[in-house]
RNA sequence: GCCUCGAUGGCGGAAUUGGUAGACGCGCUGGAUUCAAAAUCCAGUUCUGGCAACGGAGUGUGGGUUCGAUUCCCACUCGAGGUACCA
């Protein structure tokens, strides 16, 4: 009767699958509880030990909630569109659908081996047409909506059209593009269909606009910031430039305030809320227009300090600003153009991070100060970002550190507008308690009053208005990729048209090559059957395009976050073909009670999904406008990454010790090519990727030594450890316990497989409690006081731990309990039965096996959780630590019935106290009954 | 740069409201069992002085509050994550 985990785990995994033990019903008398994991991207590398960390935690929670009488929804699926599959397709020619399917199979096998209590009947895959049908459907809903500021919600675009027809847009208070012009009902009716559609696009919640991207001409593709290292592409080391492209965007900015306000309603980690708050970046200030000397154009700036407007001594435009080329004088043309080109090579991140180098160029043009009429020079500088605000700042060097540094560097004027403040060394950016001076009607006013006065004045004089600005930008929703959701969109005279929802899904077309086309179109430009026939309502060959009934389809695809923005709702009724989910399902499950996932999604998925949820709420599809009540961020598991050093511009790699002699880029190598002495298996590395096949290696002492760094464990960093071998060698229960035992769920922690033997021997010890002389056997005798005490303190601690998501300490508690019960030689049913139940959420296989051996024919997962009874933990005495000046010197056991004075008397009388005092008289004796005694003196 | 998190023995970590620092586990040392090994069991294991009894120091660094600080406050150092197309 040995603990045979292989046999046990296989048996119970099969039992759960055969009996659909964890299938959740959409109806129940029990209260509902929805436990959600962030679903994985099924990479070719398979699951690594970092993935299951959160899944194990949520599984423990889900299993515990079942014991506590809840109807638990605990689904799982795959975020199966994404770049790596496409990259692989480009390299090997294999269809991403094929590799994705294979990867999913691997993932499923790996997940099954860990014994999760998922309801697999609800599985979703974002790349499945039956799933992305609903992603496309939401896109259409967004297209057919605008944001009404009066109602503060999304409304049907037809309402807007009705108003346009009746009275034009003069009184419309809606979120829209900046440059919408005012028109009357008559104007509207006189517009052509095309003009009308163009206007509507400026209001729709998803719309086409020109946006900046990282363009890599050599690769013919747009790159993620992540794919760019030191300004060149990670793959191949090619040049990357900023380029404007016509793309779909989502008007998430319409929801900025509600996304901010909603954070107060949800129990999410404060750091995560902080990063969303910062991301949304609300600031109050004013829009001010500056005329340009000798031009019709104006420069609009947003400023949070309009009260300092008299301190403006120059203006800075983002180098990408549209007016730059227009206003630059002939004398400055060359310098400006060189600077603009240089800026295009720098990423936004670099530009933001680099505050030390001050750079900029004078355009030669001057703006006119709106109040004084003074000529102020217009500069360009890369510290101004095109995408933020208006891409222009009014520089007030005396009140802003960056403007101050810029002015000092270029010798520009720094007028002081603060009363009695010395600005000879640094700018004064404090708002409170500083009075404004040299500012005409603002003189003597403090910040708050000055703000009110100036905004009023700006509005009165008509060159601006008070405004709340958000850092949040509209989200770019187009990707020039193959492996993503196709848009349900075709183009008629260049205008986007939605395909009616009854014809969804629009299925991703087949292509010969997954690369962009030769003329720079996205990969879908390679598809030959990718046009929309409006009479037959189906996708047809491109040869049939006549722009009368057959039109070209959209060539971009949707981004990675599209599919994950509503999947949590789809799980509620994932097999529904008629609707995204039925009313009954959504009304029963409502929202997610516990969501576990990584904090790296803070401003991506977790913000976009809140936005879509609010939109769905506005449209009446869902009952709540926040979809997850509580969220826990599991910390990452870190791995030790390996790096190789590529000589810039060459396919040559130098060993770590020699890298100082070359100009190199640091590139990840897969850790599996590296041995324990950091030596690279050069052949394995060469075979890894086509581009490395002919690479040269410069060795030291005949070896290639890699660099090592601790980073998060991630497929993109090639430093993953696979859980399969662990399951094979120690079993899933050991893996589950070990992952939890590593440390606090929410903190990051390094992975080291060697520690697993501890939890493994714990399971063997647990098993032995139920075995006498090699046979399974428990006694029906009444447990002793000590045995009950062990059981009940374990129940108490484990329940507290689960409530606090402190799963690591539960594992210790189990170990202590088993150690104690082993020492007590406890074999009593009355103790061992509840013990099996409380361990079940953590180690379900062994618990099931013990439970069935105890004589039960139903799954232990359905058993009620044992009830804690405090009577077993009542103590009559306490071992008091006695401290002298805060240092513990000895302990003394005293009855808990003693009063403070009695305790003090007993301690003072103790011989060791006299020893410690050596004749001194204590100044003070602190007695905290039940806790400590501290003697001062 | 900015935002966020973290730092405790050789290692992962524990200490629930400010009250015995190092629970539990890994590793290591010694022992039992064994022909031997694995497995298992027993004892020890923060550093330091000492044969020992018993001392001294100690939770990244420097200050502060307190009878008492890993815990609270201030100023730093180092590491990690995010920073808008990795998912």
Automatic annotation (TrEMBL):
EC class: ligase
Biological processes per GO annotation: leucyl-tRNA aminoacylation
InterPro entries named in the record: aa-tRNA-synth_I_CS, aa-tRNA-synth_Ia, Leu-tRNA-ligase, Leu_tRNA-synth_edit, M/V/L/I-tRNA-synth_anticd-bd, Methionyl/Leucyl_tRNA_Synth, Rossmann-like_a/b/a_fold, tRNAsynth_Ia_anticodon-bd
A single MF term (Gene Ontology): aminoacyl-tRNA deacylase activity
Residue span(s) of domain Methionyl/Valyl/Leucyl/Isoleucyl-tRNA synthetase anticodon-binding: 790-901
Record carries keyword Protein biosynthesis: yes
Keywords per UniProt: Aminoacyl-tRNA synthetase, ATP-binding, Cytoplasm, Ligase, Nucleotide-binding, Protein biosynthesis
CDD domains: Anticodon_Ia_Leu_BEm, LeuRS_core
Major localisation: cytoplasm
Residue span, Aminoacyl-tRNA synthetase class Ia domain: 707-738
Motif ('KMSKS' region): 712-716
Keyword check for Cytoplasm: yes
Gene Ontology CC entries for this record: cytosol
Catalytic activity: tRNA(Leu) + L-leucine + ATP = L-leucyl-tRNA(Leu) + AMP + diphosphate
Leucyl-tRNA synthetase editing domain segment(s): 279-458
Domain Methionyl/Leucyl tRNA synthetase per the UniProt entry, residue ranges: 38-152
Binding site for ATP: 715
Domain of life of the source: Bacteria
E.C. number(s) listed in UniProt: 6.1.1.4
Family: Belongs to the class-I aminoacyl-tRNA synthetase family.
NCBIfam families registered for this protein in UniProt: leuS_bact
UniProt protein name: Leucine--tRNA ligase
Species, as recorded: Lutibacter oceani
Gene this chain is encoded by: leuS
